[in-house]
Design a protein that fits this description.
Elements (H helix, E strand, L loop, with lengths): L1 H17 L8 E5 L5 H9 L4 E4 L2 H10 L6 E4 L8 H7 L2 E5 L2 H13 L4 E7 L15 H8 L5 E8 L11 H16 L5 E7 L6 H6 L4 E4 L1 H4 L4
Parallel strand pairs: 1-2, 1-8, 2-3, 3-4, 4-5, 5-6, 6-7
Amino acid sequence: MKNRIKGVLERIAEAAERAGREPTEVGLVAVTKTHPAAAVREAADAGLTVFGENYIQEARDKIEELADLDLSWHFIGHLQRNKAKYAVRMFDLIHSVDSLKLAKEIDKEAAKHGKIQDVLVQVNLGNEPTKSGTGQDEAAALCREASRLDHIKIRGLMTLPPFFDEPEKARPFFAALRRLRDQIAALSIEGVFMEALSMGMTGDFEAAVEEGATWVRIGTAIFGARQ
């Protein structure tokens, strides 16, 4: 695994340099969905510190088992409102806020813990009915409305583009998210920080980095096929 991680980090760095960016601008979220706690521990031993989970129950078991490690956990899957209370307790960053109702629920739970919850707004750029995310045209309004909540902080945007066998076909979606980020940033909405772009996975992360990703979510290239 150490060699796989090294290879991924080298590819991130090379993609950043091709785009005239510093490799340190790009964070790696190691996606541990379906992989056991032992695999997370091995990745942590190899130097990784940020891990992403898609499901609350699975994450809860792993996080408890790995409580002796100093790790940062990100929630990257679809979050149901009735699971917000768990997400707020367990995760440093929630990548998948796609509605004001969910933002309000996260805000309510964060208030109970005296916490400001960092979140990203998920945008469904492909308008795919099977995927979560607010529409591109609604994203700015969602950011504005959610910015009025006291216990969440919007840190940027996330997208999951349509699946393509060819990474270059995903590039326009990554570029579109970057442009949307810049448009929202230009609105200077108080309490909205458009610093993060979560985009790119094992099959297309180099294109995402070249288009401005600050978080890439990589599982298979690190842990192998899902178990």
